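We recall that each integer encodes one residue's backbone shape. We quote one record:
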Amino acid sequence: MGNRPEDGADQLRMGIRGVRAACAAIEREIAADTTPGAVLGVLHKGREWVYAAGYAHPKPSQGEPVLAREDTLYDVASLTKVAVTLPLMLQLLDEARLTLSTKVSDILPSFQGQGKMEITVGQLLTHTSGLQADLNLHSWGWSREQMWEAVLTAPLAAKPNTEVIYSDLGYLTLGCIIEKMLDMSLEEAVKQRVWDPLGMFHSTLTPSPEQTGRYAATEYEDEIQGHLWGVVHDEKARALGGVCGHAGLFTTAGDLLKYARMWLSEGAAPLMQKTETAEGESRVFSRAAAAAAIRTHTGHVQGTNRGLGWVLKGDQMDASGDWMSPRCYGHTGFTGTSMWIDPEHELAVVLLTNRVYGGRSSSVAQLRAQVHNALTGAVSR
């Protein structure tokens, strides 16, 4: 593909100034120690390009520094919500196994507590359930069963459907629903139903210790006297074994571009092998599901604009920058990752950093906006 901005502009058929500006913004943040490295993936009108800069792990306890590469696996944190849990939930809706108005307690009887009996699947997907944002599962020495009991019986922080509270607990619960309804683990389900059909063969919820050097390291942990490397950063996911609905996905920029391509195709995916009777595409989920997911479901809550899973333009968590269209949507991950898709410009941007490498105070919020502005400005060519 070539790792120079000039190669990217030519490959993507985009303006060189914008592509160069996006890469320069990344290089500035690496020089400022905001993140040790980054991988940028861009999809424009069906053409892909991936750019890598800096280090995946500059100071491993053993061996030489590890460069960030096009195929480096990043812990993408909450991108798990939209790249694992969301597509599986849309499939369950397509398959008439549930609806957005299905009550969670009808599927999971242990989902209990004052005011929780009326919470719906749709409210979990849109973060309007009233569930609290987070919960410490890892500090008490609890068994897996005790941790799940704490998740499912956690009290509400607000009345359902009155606020948007971005809740890991909601997506943990959705992951539990998926496993129960499909009678398989979340990883088995997403691999069989989403990743394999899309050719996302690098993605995993269970990273291999034998391939540590392929991963981007995240935060320093006193307990291990080193950086987490090929180990999930999110404490809840780590305590539960990594296979969770809210976090735990390790993937590459290339795999996420394949996922974004499917969304730009409204749920369609190229067949791995065409047959005489096939029309050249298979579907991960229906066009109707895709349209519903990127339509606002929180118009009744001031200052918010959320679809099913996705953050939409103008939401308080919108990281799209200034130039992406009103139709754009995306999501971020706590470790410093993001994916943003703009159907109007036929553009998708994946930015993977490990900004927590030096601690949690570093921010890539401005970098995301700068990269999105530069690349959106480059699509006019």
Observations:
- Residues 273-278 have pLDDT under 50 and may be disordered.
- Residues 16-31 form the longest helix (16 residues).
- The chain is about 35% helix and 15% strand.
